[in-house]
Prior knowledge:
The chain has helices spanning about 15-20, 35-40, and strands spanning about 45, 60. The chain is low in regular secondary structure.
Amino acid sequence: LEDRTLHTDEVQTACQQSCPSKAIIFGDRNDAKSKVAAEFDAPSSYALLEELNTRPSVKYQVKVRNSTELKGAKKHEGGHHS
């Protein structure tokens, strides 16, 4: 109604608003200042079938964790036990 261009990250979809962990990001990837462009190009993001050069528009974030401190994980003492 204001006859103007929307700025990046100015509007949120219902999905974004209802996601408590803020895991859903939409925006203009062509705007280098947008959050979606930064997250899309982050080293921790990956796309399904990326190796086939499908150039998907959706990427996922890698879950980073220290496996030696996982809850309930047994300490690895080296070697294999039967």
